[in-house]
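Can't paste images in this forum, so I'm doing it all in text. The chain is below; anyone willing to post the predicted structure tokens underneath?
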Amino acid sequence: MQSHSRRPRTDLWQTAGSRTPERSQQVRPDMADIATITGLFVYPLKSARAVSCPRVRLTATGFEWDRQWMLINAHGVFLSQRTHPQLACVVPELGPDELWLHAPRLASLRLPLISSGAHRSVRVHRDACVGVDEGDVAAEWASRVAGEPARVVRVPVNTERLANPAFAGSVPAPMGFADGFPVLVCNQASLDELNTHLPERIPMERFRPNLVLEGLPAWAEDRIDALTVDGVTLRLVKPCTRCTIPSVDQQTGEPSTDPAPVLRRLRFDKVLHGVTFGENAVIAAAQRGEIARGTVCEVSFGT
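Text version of the structure:
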């Protein structure tokens, strides 16, 4: 589809908590609409700064290079801004053959895009999985960033980690080191609405989306079944429950305006036992396609 502007729909969708594992997997063609993709982001190192992309290539695990590396502690458990907010100051830079990681007061770390280290057991939340160790030089750098013994690991070529099938469905949805699902979709209008309730406006980067939509009313994402663009289909399967990271300034790593109290009032999900913002998605078709910023996508709404 060609990019073009469209006035947002004027109706307001207040449907948090309606997306459940048992909800219909069928898309209703009569609910189709369109929206514009205005932001595409990858996070090569889990919990580090985002890389804004003019276009992204889809792989079996989501957007190419997204959450392909992460820091782990001495017990193999992942590190994130929840406990190490200074990770927000780590700036990734993707080159033709390597990933550069830049951190304040440290020499930059170079990691080849093709890894061949030893496999080690790691953990992301409750998921026990495997990471490829990036070696002792990377471990020394990671330890200085984290302020404790740490190592850098990479997603193996043939990852066996899958999104929760209770939400993702019967077709396996492999992923890298993302928290729980391959892709996170956010709606700019929902952030705009949220900001009207906050003492200070916060930017979208606080919610760390992969894909940002414009042209829909606030909270319309709660009822989106699928997004289709240039032969690629993303199926939205679960509201994203939020942790403390949206309260961290993504430029400084310092505490800042916390949206959680307002989200708790407006967006508490009794089924998921948490506040939500954004929708987790899986790739339903064209696992090797591409998505470009500025492209219009078809939006199919569920019941």
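The longest helix spans residues 136-146. The domain at 29-301 is CATH 2.40.33.20 (M1 Pyruvate Kinase; Domain 3).
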